């Protein structure tokens, strides 16, 4: 894998399943729909992992994001 | 669904029911009335979810917002 | 209700009773006297809700504000 | 009372007794000597309220300030 | 060892195994793939140390990073 | 006492004994050697108050400083 | 000792043994290799004090640094 900047890995994940972990301990699994440089992130077809609650979408505020990782 | 930037999902939710979760653990359900880039958010016909308290409106400071999600 | 930006709801509340909740869990009820874009907020005829202590005024630092809501 | 901006209430309190509450839970009572826009605050003839310790002055860093209120 | 600025040590570690510790206590071991000035960091062939979970990559938000150290 | 801005009280304390309290609860007593606008602070002939440990100097990062007060 | 600005004490410590305490309570002892204005800090020949773990180097993110002090 070769990327120039960290956000490139997010760019390459558009439409794929990812898990976003928040600083407050919550984790969300969903299809990566949109993001920006903070990165504020929008997932669709979302599952809140701890509670298994489903949402059509979620907006995650970038400054509360801790990490993003792929779902295999 | 197709959006260009994360805040577009908020823009498309004007007047719809959403839940806003704050970093301090509080959650508010209400009709999305106004927002900005932080995003500071104003909901109307609000219910504080944990206590079931009702308010005609609430101003939520953007830097304490963790996520926004739709009510189905 | 129709407002363009979130702070408009604060602008429309000048002189009215509001409750300001701080990130550290304290809540203050009082008449909205002044505010700015952060929003730093000054209330007058204030009651600290948890302790029922009264103050003629209080200056609340904006970055510790979590939400503002009306008193009905 | 009529003020234009929140910091005006601090400006009008120069030389008067105020209580400053910090985000970390400490509270200081003293005569308001100096402040700036953050607001960093210097009190003189100070009492740390929880411990009743006295100091000739104290410099309080603005980003740890939660609120300022008058002593009657 | 001689470096001019702190990030140079990160620059010299491209493609090597490092451990990144986050402020929230999580630690990730992996090959350093990309970083920027914050430093946002992308690792590949990642192990979350506490849980021994494996990921092909992880994006770590810079403002939650506490330290980076080599794996020997 | 008359000062124009909060940092003037720090300026007037050069070479004098002060106590610096940090947001994480640690306190340091020492001679005020240098400071800047944050205020990052360097003390010399330092005692960490809780443990009574002595250091020839300490650099204290400004954004973790909560308050500065004189030692009488 | 005479220094003009707080970071000068760090400048004078290049190649010397220092202890860096982080806001999250971890402490690292090592030879000061590089730093910048935040201060992000790189130590070499490092010992994590609580666990006595050794590393050839560590990159410490400046905004998690609480203080720097010399090892005598």
What coarse outline of chain A follows from CA principal-axis ratios? globular
**Which stretches of chain A are low in confidence, meaning pLDDT under 50 for 5 or more residues running?**
none
Return the CATH class of chain A.
Answer: Mainly Beta
Mean pLDDT of chain A, to the nearest integer, reads 96
In N-to-C order, the SSE pattern of chain A is HEEEEE
Main interface by residue count? A-B, 23 and 21 residues
Strand order of the largest sheet of chain A: 4-3-2-1-5
Task: Characterise the protein shown here.
The longest helix of chain A is centred in the N-terminal third of the chain and has 5 residues, at 7-11. Chain A is 7% helix and 51% strand. The mean pLDDT of chain A is 96. Chain A has a single domain, classed as SH3 type barrels. A five-stranded antiparallel sheet of chain A has the order 4-3-2-1-5, with no helix packed on it. The first copy, chain A, starts with 6 loop residues before the first helix and ends with a strand. Chain A is globular and about 35 Å long. With 72 residues, chain A is mainly β. Chains in contact: A-B, A-E, B-C, C-D, D-F, E-G, F-G. At the D-F interface, strand 2, strand 3 and strand 4 of D face helix 1 and strand 5 of F. Strand 4 of chain D pairs antiparallel with strand 5 of chain F. Chains A, B, C, D, E, F, G: GO terms for molecular function: RNA binding. Chains A, B, C, D, E, F, G: This is Sm domain-containing protein. Chains A, B, C, D, E, F, G: It holds the Pfam family LSM. Chains A, B, C, D, E, F, G: Residues 5-72 form the Sm domain.
């Amino acid at each position: 894998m070769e990327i120039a900047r960290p956000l490139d890995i997010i760019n390459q994940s558009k439409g794929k399943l990812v898990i976003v972990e928040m600083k407050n301990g919550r984790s969300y699994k969903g299809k990566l729909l949109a993001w920006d440089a903070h990165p504020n992130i929008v997932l669709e077809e979302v599952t809140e992992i701890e509670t298994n609650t489903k949402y059509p979408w979620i907006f995650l505020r970038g400054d509360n994001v801790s990490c993003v990782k792929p779902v295999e």
